[in-house]
Amino acid sequence: MQNQNEYDNKRKKTLRWGYLFAVVALCVFALFMGRIVLLQNTNVTEIKEDYINKNYREAKLKAARGNLFASDGSILATTVMRYDIYLDFKTMRDTVYTNNIGALSDSLSKMFGKPRAEYRKRFDEQRKKGKENQYYSLVRGLDFDQYDRIRKFPIFKRGKNKGGFIVERNYKRELATTEIGSGTIGMDNGQYTSGLEGAFSKYLRGKDGKRLEQRINSSQWKPIDYWKVEEPVDGQDVYTTIDLRIQDIAHSALEKQLINFEAKHGTVIVMEVETGKVRAMVNLQRDDAGEYVDSYNYAIKDNIEPGSTFKVISLLAAMDDGFIDEKTTVNVGSGSWVYAKQRINDGHGGGIYEISDVLAKSSNVGTAKLITQYYADKPQIFLDHLKRWKLFDKMDIELPGITKPKILTPEHKRWNAATLASIGYGYSTNINLLQLATFYNGVANKGKMVKPLFIDKIMQDGKVTFTAEPQVMVKKMASEKAIQMMTSALTKAVEKGTARSIFTPNLKMAGKTGTARFEYWLPGPMKYRASFAGFYPADNPKYTCYVMISEPNVSKGFYGGTVSAPVFKEIAGKTFLKTPQNIEKEMLVDKKVNLNKLVEPNVKVAVNNKQMPTVVGLIGKNVIPQLENLGYRVEFKGVGRIKEQFPLEGTVISKNQRIYLTLQN
To answer: What is the pLDDT of residue 590?
Structure first.
C-alpha cells in the first residue's frame, strides 16, 4: 500500500511539472508568435531603418563600357581599368606593422617620389585610430603596371586579410589616338552626351550590376566582395565609319593651313559617295595657348551662312526646272547690280557669262539675276526644291546636337523683295556643314542623296550583332541632265575658275569655292569664312569633301580658292594612295601615316597545352579578338603593338582568366 501511495505521489508530481512546462512552453510560443506578428506589422520598418539601412547599402557595380573603333579596327576610345588602394589598419598585426613599415615607406617613396618620412608619419597617425580606420585611402587611379608593383610591397603582399591591402577597381574612359579628338569622339557622363560616344551610348554603356557595401564609419563604406546582388554586363563594341588614315590626312592638311593663315577654327568632312559613310570629320579651333585642338564639333553644331557654295543648290534648282542649260547666258555687266534697293557685287570680272562661268567665276550678280528672273514671282517653287532636298529639316543622324537649318521664307517678317536674291548666292540661310556636304554628295552620287552614316557595325563577344546599310534620303534630286550639267560646271570651276590654283591633270576634281563674310552688321574688321566643297575623281566620284576655314588673317588671304581649296587638293591626292594615281611626289609625303600598318597580315594566336603564348610585338587589334574568342578576358591600354603581357609566356592559364596587355605605337 505504501508503494502505491509513493507511486501516486511521484506521478502527481511529474504531472504537475509536465503541466507547468507545457504552460510555460505555451506562453513562450505565444510570446514568440506575438513577437513575429508585432515585427511583421509594426517594427520591420523601424529595424530596417535603425540597423540595415544604416549599416548596409546596395551600391552600383559599374559595367565596362564597350570600345569605340575606327572602320579599320583601330581603337578610338577604350575603357581601361584603374585601381584605387585602401588600407585596413585593423587587420595588420602589430609585429607585421612594426617589422615592415620602414621598408614599405621606402618602397612608396621610390614609387611616388615623396619623402619616406611623410609616409611613415601618415601611417603611424592612421594606425593610432585603430578600429575606426578600416578603409583609409592611400592612392587612386593606378594603372595595371603600378598596381602590379604596389601589391608586392612589404605588408601589402600579405593581401587583404593579413596585410590590410584593399583594391577597388574602376573603369576610366580614354582616347586611344591623337588623330581624332574629344570634340568629335565626344562623351557621355550620364548627364551630357556629345559626339560619337553620345551617339552610340545605348550600345556602348552596357548594364551596371549591384553589390552590397557595409558601413565602416560615418563617411566610409566598405564593399563586400563576395556579395554581388547582380553582375554587370559589359557594353558592346561599336565600329564607326571613320577611316583613321583619311582622318589623319585631313587633320594634318587642315592644321597646316590654319597655322599658315592664322585662322580661328576650321572643319573638314570627307564622305564616301556611294554609301554616305563619313570617313573623316575634323574640327580644330585655336585655344588660349595658340594650339589647334579638337574640342567642339563645328560640322554639326554651328549653322552658318554658306556663301558661294550655296550657288550650286540654287542653280541646280533652275537646271532641274529647265530654265537654264549649257547655252544659257547672263549679262553681269561691270560686276555690280542693284536689285530691290540692294547692291550685289562680284569680286572680279564682268560681261556676258555662260552658266558654267557663273559657277566657275562664282558670280553673285549672275546667280542673283538668274534666280530672280525665274522665281521672283513664285519664290515658293524655288523653295520647294530646297524642301525636297531636306534643307529645311533637321538631319536624322546618330550624333547629338545637330542644328536645324534656318532659311527665310515669304511668311517670315524679315522677308523682302531682295531676300530671294540673297538666298540665291548663299545668304539669308543658315545651314550646318554636314548638311551642305550631304547635298554635294548627292550631286556626286548622280542625284541620289544618302544619309550620312557614322556606324559600320556593332559587335558583342566577337560576333557581329548589327551591320549598317546606306539609307536613301532623296532617290532622285534632279534630272539626269541637270546633274550632268552641274558636274560639268563644277569640274570647270577647278580647271578654269576660282579653284584653278588646285588643278592637276593627274586627278580630275570638281568643286566650288565659297567666301562668306559674317557678322557684317557689326563694326570692326571684316570677318570671313573660306570654303571649298567638291568631289573626286570628277568622272567617277568616290569621295565628297567639304572644307571650311573661319576667320583667316585677311592680310594673308581669305578667299575660298586660296585658303580652303589647297586643303581639299591635299586630301584628294593623299587619299588615293590606296588607288594609285599619277600624283605629284610632294603629295605623297605624309610622315604621320604608316601604310605598313594597313597591310600587315593577321598572325594567328593559339593557346597550346593551356599555356600562355607570347604576343609581345604583335598588333593588338589582331590579337585581342582572338584571345577573347578563345574564352579569355582581355584588358589592355594604349593602341598599336603589344609592348608587355601578363601572364608571361608559358604560364598555365584557364578559361575566363583575365589577360593584361600594354600596347604602344
So the answer is: 40
194 beta partners? 187
Instruction: Please give the sequence-ordered ranges of beta strands (E in DSSP) within 177-246, or none if there are none.
Output: 187-188, 193-194, 209-215, 221-223, 237-240
Cα 494 to Cα 560: distance, rounded to the nearest angstrom: 12
Q: pLDDT tens-digit profile of 46-67?
A: 555 555 566 777 777 777 788 8
- Listed range (130-144, 216-230, 474-488, 581-595) with the worst mean pLDDT: 581-595
Mean pLDDT, the chain, whole residue set: 85
In whole angstroms, what separates CA 54 from the centre of its chain? Answer: 40
619: DSSP letter? B
**Lookup: cell for 434:** 554636314
In this prediction the pTM is 0.72
Q: Which of 572, 503, 531 is nearest to 309 (CA)?
A: 531
Distance, in Å, from the CA atom of 531 to the CA atom of 254, rounded to the nearest integer, reads 12
* Cα–Cα distance for residue pair 269/479, rounded to 1 Å: 26
Please, how many CA atoms are within 13 Å of residue 26, restricted to the half-sphere of its CB? 6
> Cα 199 to the chain's mean position, in Å?
8
**Please, are residues 193 and 213 in contact by the beta-carbon 8 Å criterion?**
no
* Residue 69 vs residues 51, 152, 211, 658: alpha-carbon distances, Å: 48, 35, 31, 22
Tell me what percent of the chain is helix, strand and coil, each rounded to the nearest 5. Answer: 40, 25, 35
Rounded Cα distance between 378 and 318, Å, is 13
The count of residues in the chain is: 665
Distance CA 209, CA 548 (A): 45
Calpha distance 127→88 (Å, rounded): 9
Residue whose C-alpha cell is 507545457: 22
pLDDT tens profile 229-250:
677 788 899 999 999 889 989 9
Cα separation of 490 and 503, whole Å?
A: 12
The DSSP string of 423-451 is HHTT-SEEB-HHHHHHHHHHHHTTT-EE-
- Based on DSSP, count helices (H) and strands (E) in the chain, helices before strands: 23, 29
Residues 27, 28, 31, 34, CA torsion sign: negative
Model pLDDT for residues 139-197, shown as the tens digit of each residue: 988 888 898 899 999 999 988 888 888 888 777 777 766 667 777 888 887 777 888 88
